[in-house]
Amino acid sequence: MKEICYKNNFLVEVVAKIDFAKPISSLNEAVLPEKIQEAIKARYKIYEPSKTVLQGIKISPQGVSSEQEEFNRWVYHGENREKSITISRDSIDVSLREYKNYDEFKLDVIAPVNKITELEGNIYISRTGFRFVNIFAGLTGTYKDISKYFHPMISSSFKNIINSEQCSRNFLITEYIHDEIKVRLQSGIYNPDYPAKIKKKDFIIDIDAYIDTPHSVSDANKLFDGLHKVIQDKFELCITKALRGVLNE
User: Fold this and answer.
1) Rounded Cα distance, 106 and 125, in Å
2) What pLDDT does residue 31 have?
């Protein structure tokens, strides 16, 4: 798959999340398996021990009581904490605050997944998702600037906005289905100062692509490439030639 890679980007966070259909036995021990450790340490240098407590309710003939279960959670960070990975028996979460390109991002996710698959065999997943959050800080100083850089579908509501001086948030949520992949596209001015009135008119494109029907991870490359392609295609449809010029400066 050909990737469109710009010289610059406005990504503030890129997230991958994999939820296992059932707890993974090799991740339910006191120590993370050595092969998985090696795969993670090649990409993440800082280890931060952690545990998770699962709260629940037990119903018995004697009545209702609360119960809790503690299990390990392994958290690693990049050398400058520019990225993090969290692994537990139930899920893998990867978060990047500095995004270079898709190939590097995929390595941050796929290496530990492949090692888990080698240990467990074909594992099943209840949900796999990628999320790319773009905040175009400083690009749109006025509402008029928004239509210059973004497609009319996501920019037109700002063209003739009613009571613009009193507006505290203007956000559009659009959802799509591409076969088994679902996409949630959020765009507009989220306003970090909400519920105060909008001061900074920083535009956001937030794209979340996911599969939430049970699926296997026998071919992780194909799974991740499919999600990324949908996100890339949606992003390209949302932006104009003028913005592409900014991204390539």
Assistant:
1) 18
2) 87
Question: What is the Cα–Cα distance from 124 to 216, expressed in whole angstroms?
Answer: 4
Dist. CA 172–CA 154, nearest whole Å: 7
| pLDDT < 50 stretches in the chain | 1, 53
Closest CA to 227 of 249, 203, 208, 248: 208
Nearest alpha-carbon partner for 245 in 132, 154, 139:
139
Tell me the whole-structure pTM to 2 decimals: 0.89
CA neighbor of 221 nearest in space, from 99, 132, 111: 111
Cis peptide bond N-terminal to 192, omega within 30: no
Pairing type for strands 83-88 and 91-96 reads antiparallel
> Do the beta carbons of residue 22 and residue 147 sit within 8 Å?
no
User: Is residue 224 classed as helix, strand or coil in its secondary structure?
Assistant: helix
Gap between the Cα atoms of 78 and 47, Å rounded: 9
Using alpha carbons, list the distances in angstroms from residue 57 to 53, 67, 70, 71, 97.
13, 6, 15, 17, 37
User: Which residues have C-beta within 8 Å of that of residue 138, sequence separation ≥ 6?
Assistant: 202
Side chain identity at residue 214, one-letter code? P
Residues 6+ apart with CB under 8 A from 233: none
pLDDT at residue 92, as a whole number: 94
**118-168, pLDDT tens digit by residue?**
888 878 999 999 999 999 999 999 999 999 999 999 999 999 899 999 999
The helix or strand, by DSSP H or E, that contains position 209, with its residue range, turns out to be: strand 203-211
Model confidence over 123-135: pLDDT tens digits?
A: 899 999 999 999 9
